[in-house]
Protein: DUF1294 domain-containing protein
Organism: Flavobacterium chungangensis
Amino acid sequence: MEVLLLYFLFINVLVFIFAGYDKSQARKNNRRIPEKTLFLMALIGGSLGLLTAMLLFRHKTSKTSFIVKFVLILVIQASLIIAFMNYKK
């Protein structure tokens, strides 16, 4: 269980840093981190880090397609957590 918590901490901090870096690059009109990279990191457990970065840096919050895809990832993750919790009963 400890390893899993460390993993989630690591991936969330990492995606938070990536999103902050991407926002910095966007302001400078430099090369950006692909959205699919941010989505993949959110999908494998970094959704809280990405959500925090989105709110704190106001990153990708006006891009509807990004929000829709991100919400879909959150729904998938919530469904998996609920299914896992019901399975353990």
Summary: The chain has a mean pLDDT of 94. The chain is about 85% helix and 0% strand. Helices lie at 2-27, 35-57, 64-88.
